[in-house]
Amino acid sequence: MSVLELQDLHVTYRSEGGPVPAVRGVSLSLERGDTVGLAGESGCGKSTIAAAVLRLLPKGTEVSGKVLLDGEDVYAMKPGRLRAVRWTSAAIVFQGALHSLNPVRRVGNQIEEAILLHTAVSPRAARTRTGELLVKVGLPADRAQRYPHQLSGGQRQRVLIALALACDPKVLIADEPTTALDVMVQAQVLALLEELQREQGLSLLFITHDLSVLTTTCERLAVMYAGRIVEQGPGREVFAQPHHPYTRALAAAFPTIGDPASRMNPAGLAGDPPDPSALPSGCPFHVRCAVATAECSSLDVGLRVAAPGRSAACVHVEAAHV
Amino acid sequence: MSARFLLRKVLGAISTLAFVVTVNFFLFRVVNDDPTATMYRGRNMKPEQIASLRQKFNLDGSKWEQYLAYLRQLLRGDLGLSMKGSREVSAVIGEAIWPTLLLVGCSTLLAMLGITLGYRAGWRRGSGFDTSATSFSMLTYAMPDFWIGMVALGLFSVKLGWFPVSGLEDPGSAATGISQLLDQLHHMALPAIVLALAYVGEYMIVARSAMIETLSEDYLQLARAKGLRDAEVRRRHAVPNARLPVVSLSAINFGFVVGGAIAVESLFSWPGIGQLTSLAVKGPDFPVLQGLFLLLSAAVILANLVADLLYSRLDPRAGGR
User: Fold this and answer.
1) Contact residues for A21 (Cβ-Cβ < 8 A; gap 6+)
2) Are residues A150 and A176 part of one domain?
3) CB distance B316–A92 less than 8 Å?
4) Are A214 and A316 in a shared domain?
5) How many distinct structural domains can be found in chain A?
């Protein structure tokens, strides 16, 4: 059984300008010990998925489909059960560059709070465990006494990882954990996540806009566009041999190391991500697509098998690859 | 909190106070160069009598000499003499301060219930509770305290007779102990409620908007994700961040407690600082007014100092650590 499974998940935010469909039918499963990457531009719905797993969406947001944590539907849980499941079944590594840590409370205190909430231990034991967690993520234990503003961006991100590990969750959802960190620190944080994932057998859902981060860490990779998964497959293959024109554009945006031509002239993707409240007709990508044909503006196809273990949502896929 | 931070704040407060003392002194000399003139106006007085009056009220010599004499006097804790009955200003103020501290202090504490109200209303922004609490606050905030006082006095004291009309206690009463205390509380109830009503809206509105500002913070989302109850997220994570503007407001209002409530005290003939101020203006009794100004400034400066120090304890980013 998958530790985390999304079944045809739809999330529609309510706004003054009308409903905003942020996630439009996403199915995804995460097996024990697996790492799945979820990539896409900002506004594609990937962070909405992170919030949806623990039912953290704002009041009034419409959710349909199912989110199963260890086979149990999160949206059918009673409030008490939901609170118990939060942080123990699945925890989120929030983005450290944001104000994810409470600025007026010591970081250790914020980790202890989670431990004391979910495990029957003494405050002293919780403090000891907090020190151990900080050491595990590569920080001296005495950093527990610091306030968030006294730590660097990388240190804050490590604290957030320690915080996510506080209650030994089965599933870890990393929501843009390397954004706004400099490259060296990014590499350290990634290495740390990989190591923890291996050591503790965590199942990791890794959300990022940075495709290059995912190809090295993820066994499986899902690329999102306009609230849907448009391509899925093993990490390296998806990046090396993209089937969907959007993935192709994303992959081409990264310069190839050792190839001066691509470094001097990285291929970008013209245009902006679509406004979820006013999606184009047909395939939502056709307005930016290099290979769009007349039928693309009226035909919106779902994921179809492109190769063994690979699928993509594009009319041209079958013609090209099967 | 570092010693340097503390020292800097205390020195700042002291120099502000010195500035206020100076401005205060010259302000009254500009308003009226020779206040004794009003005392003998229309009366036949010998030059020696006038000279002795001027000496009594420290009006001899140049302004500069007067200023230095005033400073020397102040350092001894002497605020001069009242022009009415030649009593010590410090004694006159000392008599009026206790009724004021009691009345305005109690009503300020009562009004601070508005803080809890505001936090809860902000947390449930747009709910029925929020709408009614905000409407109530806006309404009372918009009503001047003397107006609320007049309506309350007319309705509850004159018409219904539930509360005494004025004063600190029954004039002819010889009651002591508990019954005297009950009598005083009975007299204080109506003006205290009136003042609390006039103040509560401000606390509520400030607390509510401070709370609303924290609502979209990421750390609240994280606190919820941890599995905390809604009320725990509010108490442990939102309130400590929403507290800062409320602390400043409360500290400054506590400074103003000493200044009394001029309109409401006069209305209810409450023998406090507010009533004393209004009487001193009518006199005019310049030494008493000058003393009252100084007292009020000192109280506000002290309250600000306390607010600053509290702030640095509540918000680790505010320096001092």
Assistant:
1) A10, A11, A12, A227, A276, A277, A279
2) no
3) no
4) yes
5) 2
Would you tell me how many other CB atoms lie within 10 Å of the CB of residue B138?
Answer: 13
What is the token pair recorded at B181? 């205390």
The shares of helix, strand and coil residues in chain A, as percent rounded to the nearest 5, are 35, 25, 40
Could you report the per-residue pLDDT of A63-80, keeping only the tens digit for each? 999 999 999 999 999 999
From A99, A104, A163, residue closest to B315, measured CB to CB: A104
Same domain, A156 and A295: no
Domain at A211, CATH number: 3.40.50.300
Three-class DSSP category at A303 = coil
Distance of CA A312 to the CA centre of its chain: 19
The residue segments making up the domain with residue A134 are 99-168
Of A84, A101, A147, the CB nearest to B227: A84
**Whether residues A212 and A254 fall in one domain:** yes
| Residue A94 included in any domain | no
Confidence of residue B71 (pLDDT cuts 50, 70, 90): confident
Find the CB nearest A99 among B219, B225, B236.
B219
Over 70: is that where the pLDDT of A320 sits? no
Q: What is the mean pLDDT of chain A?
A: 87
Q: How far does the CA of residue A109 sit from the closest CA of chain B (Å)?
A: 11
Same domain? For A114 and A139 the reply is yes
Query: Best of A102, A115, A156, A160 to disrupt the B interface by mutation (most B CBs within 10 Å)?
Result: A102
Q: Are residues A194 and A80 in the same domain?
A: yes
Mean pLDDT of B279-308: 87
Domains along chain B with CATH numbers: 3-318 (1.10.3720.10)
CB contact under 8 A, A83 and B227: yes
Q: Which residues contact A240 (CB under 8 A, 6 or more apart)?
A: A251
Cβ atoms of residues B297 and B231 within 8 Å:
no
- How far from each other are the two terminal CA atoms of chain A, in whole angstroms? 30
Q: Same structural domain for residues A186 and A308?
A: yes
A268-285: pLDDT as tens digits: 777 788 888 888 888 888
pLDDT in tens, B88-123: 888 888 888 888 888 888 998 999 999 999 999 999
State which of A150, A168, A186 marks the end of a domain. Answer: A168
Supply the DSSP string of B190-246, one letter for each residue: HHHHHHHHHHHHHHHHHHHHHHHHHHT-HHHHHHHHHT--HHHIIIIIIHHHHHHHH
Q: Which of the four pLDDT bands, split at 50, 70 and 90, describes residue A321?
A: very low
pLDDT score of B320 more than 60: no
* A56 membership: H or E segment, kind and range: none
Helices (H) and strands (E) in chain A, counts: 11, 12
Residue A239 maps to a domain: yes
DSSP assignment of B9-52: HHHHHHHHHHHHHHHHHHHHHHH-S-TTHHHHTTS---HHHHHH
Instruction: Mark whether A81 and A120 lie in a shared domain.
Output: no
Please indicate whether, in this complex, the C-beta atoms of A104 and B225 are within 8 angstroms of each other. Answer: no
Final residue belonging to a domain, choices A149, A168, A187: A168
In a domain, A144, yes or no: yes
Chain B: give the shortest CA distance to residue A102, in Å: 5
The verdict on a CB contact (< 8 Å) between A86 and B217 is: no
Optimal mutation site among B124, B222, B235, interface A, most CBs of chain A within 10 A: B222
Reported as type and span, the H/E element at residue B180 is helix B177-215
Q: How far apart (Å, rounded) are the C-alpha atoms in residues B250 and B260? A: 15
